Amino acid sequence: MIPFVFPSCRLIGLGSFLTLMSALLCPPAIAAGAVSVEPTVSGIQSSIQARGAKATVAVLMRNDRWWGIVTRIRDGETAWIELAPALSAGEGAAYDLANALSYALLRNAPAVLAALNADHGAALDLARVCNSRYPYPIKAFPREAEGYGEKRSAAVAAVDDPALSQVKSACLTALARGPSRGY
């Protein structure tokens, strides 16, 4: 072991010094690699309340859990869609969530419109979500991409919740404009 003189003038080993510095610079859970988020709706809600959206999204991305969450939203699962406004504050999350919500309009338009309504335009971009452009590579899914804008317009038009009338109208207007560029 190589001795090291610590500022207190005590002689300690390099291993002890590194352990001490690790404990000072990183909280024990982070130093041990134990920071995680349970990939369930309640686990993510708890993490957002305890750590905030940015830290929660960072942990989900670092632990390869992010795409599982995005897929659940894309599949139109209401409880997962309801998480989107809170998660959208995470670094790099808004774009992925907007694409997932865009696709989810076909499967669960009322939940997507409710999420957009709850977000009040804070991070989720209504123009991106309510865009007639197919959000995934058309070559990979040619059958799904066919008539995509019309199918989503019909799904949004079928929503009859009066509380969602404003966001529904804004979404239909964006869908009628046609595909946006740059996405």
How does this model look, in words?
This is SH3 domain-containing protein. Keywords: Signal. Residues 1-31 form the signal peptide. It comes from Paraburkholderia megapolitana. The protein has 183 residues and is mainly alpha-helical. The chain has 2 domains: 1-34, no CATH class; 35-177. It is 61% helix and 3% strand. A hairpin with a 5-residue loop joins strand 1 and strand 2 (11-13). The relative contact order is 0.09. Residues 3-34 have low confidence and may be disordered.
Task: Give the helices and strands, then pairings.
Elements: E1 3-5, E2 11-13, H1 14-25, H2 28-31, H3 41-51, H4 53-62, H5 66-74, H6 78-81, H7 84-87, H8 93-119, H9 126-129, H10 142-145, H11 148-157, H12 165-177
Antiparallel strand pairs: 1-2
Helix pairs in contact: 3-4, 5-8, 8-11, 8-12, 11-12
